[in-house]
Records
---
Amino acid sequence: VRALRYYGQADVRLDEVPEPQTTPGRVKVQVDCCGICGSDLHIYRRGSMGPPTRERPHPLTGELLPVVLGHEMAGQVVEVGEGVTSVSVGDLVAVEPLLICRQCQFCRSGQYNRCVKMGAVGNSGNGGGFSKYVVIDEQFAHVLPEGVSLEAAAVAEPICVGWHGVARSGVGPDGTALVLGAGPVGLGALLSLKAKGVGFVAVAEAVRGARTRMAEEFGADLVIETSSQDLAGEIGEATQGMGVDVVLEVAGVQATLDYAMAAVKKGGTIVNVAVWEDPPVLNIGMLRESSITGSTGYAFEYPLVLQAIADGRIPDPVRMVTRRVPLDQAVDQGIQALIDDRANQVKILVQP
Amino acid sequence: VRALRYYGQADVRLDEVPEPQTTPGRVKVQVDCCGICGSDLHIYRRGSMGPPTRERPHPLTGELLPVVLGHEMAGQVVEVGEGVTSVSVGDLVAVEPLLICRQCQFCRSGQYNRCVKMGAVGNSGNGGGFSKYVVIDEQFAHVLPEGVSLEAAAVAEPICVGWHGVARSGVGPDGTALVLGAGPVGLGALLSLKAKGVGFVAVAEAVRGARTRMAEEFGADLVIETSSQDLAGEIGEATQGMGVDVVLEVAGVQATLDYAMAAVKKGGTIVNVAVWEDPPVLNIGMLRESSITGSTGYAFEYPLVLQAIADGRIPDPVRMVTRRVPLDQAVDQGIQALIDDRANQVKILVQP
């Protein structure tokens, strides 16, 4: 079968690979669609930080580069391994792409997103969504609730990242929030905040375009275009000079961290959801009694997000999809388009 | 009366100033002793970040530079203003040096250390402990419990800073902790952790000397000399490779933040108690699901620390005092000695 594989910085190739085999406790999913993630762009532009590398195998999969890309996927179960009981052939599922060891202290205490060997389908080996089939653990195949489409299930992945970040922030309905960055994860955070009933949510983006339009469409109470507006001033005005309770940092550049520090209330929380290409300088003296908290992936959150989509607390998230491309155009019309045309492209789905 | 006043970077002078006047709700304290704080050294070496400056008055005191230094003080009440009921002439008191507005959202909700106009006796105007008298709000004059000496009460200030940092960390008796820096605040954090029953406390210092000896004396379970030992390796060995639950960052340099990131458990908390001269680079990707939390001063914690000293949960903290100097030697034998002879000097008390 064909698969888009990552070899190294700016080196992604459409290869012929063997079809993955179903093993006990696992299920084979025929991929219907798989989103291109911001992290895929980071890997493409800057190179993976590995493992795996060309020399160092991933500790869970034992694989070296190249690996198949793509981790935001949904599809249909076409085969189930021995002992699988919760999923059947023909089921439509969202694929939670995590690979975990099940043995470390974190895995054994319900914190599997902190697994010491953590990997993911789509960048650690064990295949990926930019190919026709993936084989995953039964636990990570989430049968779609009534009314949730396969495309919505693919888009559920970045929403889960946002949802987990919001959960880490501890914000409640009385709280106020700022989301820095209105890409898919930022929009996912916005949708999650609104699904959780948070009264005031501001969203900031560098330039006006598809992302700011979607932030408005998805219910942001305030949209700030940082290239032309004074973020700290806008937030100060909206919060009687106190700042917001929580900031979701989904952009990951020096300027946005500085915005976060300027916008957060004393004692508030900045949640880092972003992947950073360059580590920022932290004006730590200005932190005072606020916190910066990391957020990694998600744990037990796929079912919550799928259910919120099903019952309308998260209104149709497929609206963030701006393009669909076949596998052989995934680089030129997908990855490259997201890098070059950030103003108009938000989520691009690959259809293997 | 004589007072040591700060004019600007490396410019501290012994001046004659008017004796401060007692006003309603306030008490006049004759200072017995006042510690030189690490923050005094920062101000001396790098200059204050103000307010106040020469041109910009402090919003609470309305004073410009110069201001009297010294905020870690204890003494005897010599006069009480109209309406004062909780303190009497002759009482020995610890002076909590905060200046607060009592009007902002934080002051009105029991978070006075987050006051939007926050200042301190000893660097914002309203006098300071490096002079014979200070006049402070009744609320901030803490009568010493039986058995607590005036010197212990002066040293209570850095312990309160450590105590508050420990409280911010959320660590409990089952937890594990690392304190980075064994100056007075680091030792205060160690004493606080032990007073709260935390089972494992490691303390790291750059070089062996008075500070590491005191860390041992004050009950550290592990003392790491970072110039010759591998901190991450030592912490890994002591925690089965998991890292510590909390790190108290009391040193405030790039290397110690890097140590903190390397030593903290996934999901753990780094509390910044340090004052930073240069903002550090944060390898934010390595934060994963850990947090960095700021800690500023203390609120409602003086009585807790004084009581812990009285009942022996904090064993005699005056042992951290390495020298006592009169006011006219406070710069040469005090501030300068702490800068030049960090290995042998820990807490120096000025006796006005």
---
Amino acid sequence: MADAIQTGDVVLLLGPDGERHIVKATAETKRVEGLGVIRLVDLAGKPWGGTLALGPQSFRLVRPTLTDHLRLLERKAQIVLAKDASRIVLETGVHAGSRVVEAGVGSGSLTLVLAHAVAPTGRVYAYDLRPDHLDVGRRNLERADLAGVVEFAQGDVARDVRQEDVDAFVLDVPEPQAGVAAAWSALRSGGVFAAYSPIVAQVEGVVKELRARGFVDVRPLETLERGWVVHERGSRPETNMLAHTGFLTFARHP
Amino acid sequence: MADAIQTGDVVLLLGPDGERHIVKATAETKRVEGLGVIRLVDLAGKPWGGTLALGPQSFRLVRPTLTDHLRLLERKAQIVLAKDASRIVLETGVHAGSRVVEAGVGSGSLTLVLAHAVAPTGRVYAYDLRPDHLDVGRRNLERADLAGVVEFAQGDVARDVRQEDVDAFVLDVPEPQAGVAAAWSALRSGGVFAAYSPIVAQVEGVVKELRARGFVDVRPLETLERGWVVHERGSRPETNMLAHTGFLTFARHP
Amino acid sequence: MADAIQTGDVVLLLGPDGERHIVKATAETKRVEGLGVIRLVDLAGKPWGGTLALGPQSFRLVRPTLTDHLRLLERKAQIVLAKDASRIVLETGVHAGSRVVEAGVGSGSLTLVLAHAVAPTGRVYAYDLRPDHLDVGRRNLERADLAGVVEFAQGDVARDVRQEDVDAFVLDVPEPQAGVAAAWSALRSGGVFAAYSPIVAQVEGVVKELRARGFVDVRPLETLERGWVVHERGSRPETNMLAHTGFLTFARHP
Amino acid sequence: MADAIQTGDVVLLLGPDGERHIVKATAETKRVEGLGVIRLVDLAGKPWGGTLALGPQSFRLVRPTLTDHLRLLERKAQIVLAKDASRIVLETGVHAGSRVVEAGVGSGSLTLVLAHAVAPTGRVYAYDLRPDHLDVGRRNLERADLAGVVEFAQGDVARDVRQEDVDAFVLDVPEPQAGVAAAWSALRSGGVFAAYSPIVAQVEGVVKELRARGFVDVRPLETLERGWVVHERGSRPETNMLAHTGFLTFARHP
């Protein structure tokens, strides 16, 4: 509580109605979409949990968490959602210090979740064929102050991965089976492979290749999430839900 | 690969058929259930990824990951499963350095996942009313070499929590609404509340109390997981699945 | 195939793109929304499966099935969908000749499905408090040529049901527990009770009342449906689905 | 209520604990598994809803419904469950008087549901390659007093179906695509095709063939069912559920 915001800190402005913006405490004055002009220099020195008046509204100054960064992500491609990203983190077991190869950056949502898990001492090696995806991913990681643990590289997962002895190897690419040989070479003994794939044929392709290569504990699954509504007059599930995002396939390097 | 196992390291013995045992590289000779007598002193000095012959079987020596520890957990009470524990970690945003209060240790499965996420610099403050649950939880955390980041305490979440300014507050207790006031006092601004509750009435109780107290982003949900089978002749979902574990309720301290 | 459409028959006009309209072969000329003016007298005498040209389009003349009637229902209130209506028909076991009490007509979607199942020799006794719901229900049943097996009545299920020895008793009302006593009186031995209720508290209320009253096989459940997409490049579930409509509670009069 | 059981009627003996047996009121004395010897001649003349004492237990004499017959089915092959059979009946729109081809009788569970829907004036033409499946199916239909509306025939759906102008064509066979041409020939205009298939590749095969052949409204889906538990201390979904039975594919003959 006593802590004060420092220059360079990333700050979440949390409105009373749940409105939220992420800014960096710098020496600048900046136009923030939906907020107008804000003197970022005013942030430094204010206490965490304090407030900032902007026009008629008062915003609380809060340390952003992972879900704030995910919610405010700049989107280029379809993102990997919380229900799947969270499971990938748990099954791969990545945490502070882990080294992970990721191929298929997209908008960087999964890169962000992995970077958050391995920071500050780990490393995410993030590959994508498309420079525009790498640019969006890099910007999203910078806004979350996590770019320092990620090495972005333009490249094809089947040919260009140079890392060895990594703890996890995560694929979100159209042909995940093409990355299995690279995963076999890059993973340490006991390391975990994960693929995110929307189509059943992709699951079939990657499962067959994983088994052929010698991976163990090959396990495809899908995750579902259903929101609930709690009213005065009672509770019920929400009316709509996502029926499908991607299947997850996990495997273990023996 | 070049790394060698050190005395004190926790080692996973991974059999060719997926059989697995977790042991500690000590100076002792020990009887391991299902393995017979093993000279743990033989482990130190062997390379990670190397093998150890035990009777007719050869085991690979692997650094255990989070899921190994979860699978080999000593169980006293119903455990929180991967589908739910993973989501709690993502939504609370806990990572290296985070400080978390957890009430309702049970067998320590969620304690283990939280400790793994916040290690080595964070802290889990784990409360339970029952000494036997605390004992099982402590043993499980010690086996995973994560007891150092957990402070176990016998106590009632409604009265005994002393921490302030924590990043997350996680409840798996029969009356989660009784812990909401304590969560309000303990959480930092922007910190996240999470409750795991099997019964709809628990969800209703905690949601109402969270709203009354001033929490924002109050959001109950449930997660589901469905395994898939990939055969030569085609793919299909597995025949059986868990229909229910617990509902998850998340909220944010403003 | 040799059969010809008779005056008075209900005909589905099925367009090449799946467009569909239901009309009655009468002596009139009529404006049909989306089709323009159509001389219905032209339909009689044409063979079932033949075509009718309307402007630039050619429509096939087809005997409508239950799902055509459901799709083209005039809607006033929320309708009971195929996934739930179908299950109610199976669990109640209603078929040709069965006698059913239904309370809570709404738009008549469930009335239509029940009437279709019990026709031509059975009977649906359909109660609703609101005359406007009864009017919509009656119109929908007339369009499907099934009004002859339904007796609509304005009334309160708790007080106004006079039938005895019925095979099934189906409730879609805000307080299903209030109808349980009436169901007990109306059902034959071995007859089936069914309630459709969106809220968990409604399920709890009706289950408790059913047990107190002496019903057996009391069984609440929910049904889910997920569509699939089959493309050239592979298959996957559809992106969105309904997460919830209503819970179904079945019970048996001993 | 006043009705009495006649010789030849099928009677459900419903025990106080939900125990149930189906017998036929004949002149015989018969050994019923789990009940001992019962003089069936005693049933005729007793009122429906009356009781019969058998040893220490008293059984209520009840007209069986469809679900009783399904529950007491003699099983040879995997049966089609209520969640799927009910949907097939609704989507095909079969009811009294409908004519249906079914291929893949198995234990006759779906045959029974279809026969129940089309009785007394309709017809189910039930094909299977295996005589033993046809025998089990026939016995199950006889026990339900519905054998009169079913014509069983040993044969291959791709070659042996002779019916024309049928309202529905239902497949539960290993290669459903092989039956699509036969369905095209047999169905009336506006008639409905349905396939039940456990494997995704079967769905892909049948969908492609249906589209190639000219069927419209081709629609694959899966149904799920989750039971609920209502206790004094609250409600929750049951712990386990079926994750998968078969995918359903529906299509319409234009």
